[in-house]
Write a structure and sequence with these properties.
Length: 154
């Protein structure tokens, strides 16, 4: 169909690139198998990938971390510092699809949110590192026009 507008933000190609890059970072650094989610500005999943050997529950956790970063407009880790009464209320509002732990980050273009990305499966700091490095590599890729990630996890 033509004439239907597209949401601003990440494309499928962007999301695929980011997810693969985060899986590559995890493999390069020896992290446990990760699940990586990339969501659009509406909070819907564009790409969800889980490395071989990853625990099934990590997929849902990655999506929830990405949504947490998106609705808070800050890394999911930052919400872990809120009082438990507030996080409990937010959990209720978002039907438990809210994980205030490290691993979810906004993907931005300047000061505009394009979507969010998150990983789960390793320690929270490692989850966050994988997506942060992936976003750095993606930005370099966009500015230099470099090739696809190396596909350690394909």
């Amino acid at each position: 169909m033509t004439g239907i507008p597209r949401l601003p933000g990440l494309t499928l190609a962007d999301a695929d690139w980011l997810a693969q890059a985060a899986l590559d970072v995890g493999a390069e650094r020896g992290f446990p198998p990760l699940a990586v989610a990339v969501i659009d500005v509406a909070g819907e999943v564009i790409v969800l990938r889980r490395a071989d050997g990853g625990m099934p529950m990590t997929s849902r956790i990655a999506v929830a971390k990405a949504r947490t970063a998106l609705v808070a407009l800050q890394p999911s880790r930052a919400l872990g510092e809120l009082p438990s009464q507030i996080t409990d209320s937010i959990q209720h509002l978002y039907d438990s699809d809210f994980v205030p732990r490290a691993g979810g980050i906004l993907v931005t273009g300047g000061d505009v949110a394009l979507g969010a990305a998150a990983a789960s499966g390793a320690h929270g700091d490692e989850d966050e590192e994988a997506v942060l490095v992936a976003v750095e590599r993606w930005r370099t890729h966009l500015s230099e026009g470099t090739a696809q990630p190396s596909a350690h996890s394909r």
